Amino acid sequence: MKLFAKSGTVFDRVMDILVVVACVIFTFAMLLVCADVIMRYAFNHPIKITLEICEYILVGIVSLGMAWLLREEGHVKIDFLLSHFNSGQQALITGITSAIGAVFVLIITWYGAENTFSLMQRPFAVETGILRIHKSVLLIPLAIGCFLFFIQLIRRAYKHLKMYKSLKNARAQ
Predict the structure, then answer these.
(1) Can you say whether residue 124 is alpha, beta or left, with left for phi > 0 and alpha for psi between -120 and 50 degrees?
(2) Do residues 75 and 156 lie in contact, with contact meaning Cβ atoms separated by under 8 Å?
């Protein structure tokens, strides 16, 4: 159990670092767009790769931040439905839906990793627009982010099912 808690702490630190990285990348994208607007309207010479870079940055930001956002309970949920249940039932529903979500995210992660490795086998087969970056390089953050999201969904399911069990035991006594 100590190892589980220790690995959870390490995982939380990794997520915190990735969110900071996502914020730095987002700041870079914002500055790049501002520079592009200035170059376009003041000097009539836009930065041609701005749109492409910002598209990839947005995918990276979402990928790096979705597990952290789940940990912070920041994802959209249907509160009006859950509010009709007691806290034990809410914990059970959240635990079950998190476990189901983990299964689906694992499937997406597996498919994404398989697709990424498949693209790596084809040199220069799939490249992006202006930057000419191999597309597999751009899919790696998405696969990593989905895997981290899967782990966080498992942690969330475990936490809520454990909470349900303790609430059920407290009511039984």
Answers:
(1) left
(2) no
- Cα 28 to Cα 20: distance, rounded to the nearest angstrom: 12
Gyration radius (Cα) of the chain, Å: 21
60 vs 123, 149, 156, CA distance in Å?
22, 13, 23
pTM: 0.82
Quick check: helix, strand or coil at residue 21? helix
CA 17/CA 101 separation, integer angstroms: 24
Residue 43, strand partner residues: none
| φ, ψ of residue 134 in degrees (nearest 5) | -60, 130
Q: 140, exposed or middle or buried, with CB in 10 Å at 0-12, 13-18, 19+? A: middle
**pLDDT of the chain, 173 residues: tens digit per residue:** 677 678 888 888 988 998 999 999 999 999 999 999 999 888 988 888 888 888 888 888 988 889 988 888 877 777 788 888 888 888 898 899 999 999 999 998 998 888 888 877 776 655 556 767 777 777 788 888 889 999 999 999 999 998 888 888 877 77
End-to-end Cα, the chain, rounded Å? 26
Q: How far apart are CA 47 and CA 36, in angstroms?
A: 5
